[in-house]
Design brief:
Elements: E1 8-12, H1 14-23, H2 30-39, E2 44-48, H3 58-67, E3 72-76, H4 80-89, E4 93-96, H5 116-128, E5 132-137, H6 141-149, E6 154-158, H7 160-163, H8 168-187, E7 191-195, H9 203-207, E8 212-217, H10 219-228, H11 230-246
Parallel strand pairs: 1-2, 1-8, 2-3, 3-4, 4-5, 5-6, 6-7, 7-8
Helix pairs in contact: 2-3, 2-11, 10-11
The structure holds 1-deoxy-D-xylulose-5-phosphate and ligand LD2JLWAY.
Ligand LD2JLWAY binds next to β8 and α10.
């Protein structure tokens, strides 16, 4: 089982590109954001190259591959076109996610059970190229088993149901599901990542789940960065992760 005192922070910079694409302009450049996030203490940079290219563009990904000195995590669907790009860019990690054109953001985890052979084929191709593969899934035992069957090295348990819970009781129930799923995944030898909808307060109980090794956080950090700057926004998140993780060690 993998447990660590330092939870990696992957900063998702998609929404820096969202601002740029609002005007189809050249700024703000997510490449500059990646450099500042790294100065602020990010352990990795995460981007989602969507099929509709609503934010991150192909050029961003290729330049990021050149300048990211930590870990580059590419969130991607299993569409042939996107897989071909991933194989060319060779991010350190690829996280397979479900994608729908009409959605505002990712809705729920990848249904690995329903698409087992397609997911396995993509996992194999990515791993053959030396890319480590994570699957963004719901915190459900059957999905964890399926992630193992298809050869994933990590799972990113989606925290949307937790972060969007409408009542305190519902949030506690979702947190408990995440705790159990993290334990189960780690027992099966999977690295445990989490992400989606995490912010400067709801991240606290999440970082205290012992099996969690990596958190991917975007919207809340970019939102804060607009007001206080990227470096500071990342440093503040990183400080929270360090402080509350150390409390359980
Ligand atoms: C997979 C996941 O949880 C998200 O980070 C996803 O990449 C969000 O996509 P948007 O950044 O387009 O909302
Ligand atoms: N995989 C989750 C991610 O990268 C960031 O999600 P969010 O913080 O933008 O909701």
């Amino acid at each position: 089982m993998h447990t660590t005192s330092n939870v990696r922070l992957g900063v998702n910079i998609d929404h820096v590109a969202t601002v740029r694409q609002a005007r189809r302009a050249k700024e703000p450049d997510p490449v500059a954001a990646a450099i500042l996030a790294t100065l602020g203490g990010a352990d990795g940079i995460t981007v989602h190259l969507r099929e509709d290219r609503r934010h991150i563009q192909d050029r961003d990904l290729f330049v990021l591959r050149e300048i990211v000195t930590t870990r580059l995590n590419l969130e991607m669907s299993v569409a042939d076109e996107i897989v071909a790009i991933a194989l060319k860019v060779r991010p350190d990690e690829a996280t397979l996610v479900p994608e729908r054109r009409q959605e505002l953001t990712t809705e729920g985890g990848l249904d690995v059970i329903a698409h087992e052979s397609a997911v396995r084929a993509v996992v194999d191709r990515l791993k053959e190229t030396g890319i480590s593969v994570s699957l963004f899934i719901d915190p459900e035992p059957a999905q964890i088993e399926a992630a193992c069957r298809v050869g994933a090295e990590a799972v990113e348990l989606q925290t949307a149901s937790y972060s969007e819970a409408r009542t305190a009781n519902a949030q506690i129930a979702e947190l408990e599901k995440l705790r159990q799923a993290a334990h189960r995944a780690a027992e099966q030898g999977l690295h445990v990542h989490m992400g989606h909808g995490l912010n400067y307060s709801n991240v606290i109980p999440i970082v205290q789940i012992p099996e969690v090794e990596e958190l991917n956080i975007g919207h809340s950090i970019v939102s804060r960065a607009v007001l206080v700057g990227m470096e500071r926004a990342v440093r503040e998140m990183k400080d929270i992760l360090l402080r509350y993780r150390q409390a359980i060690m």
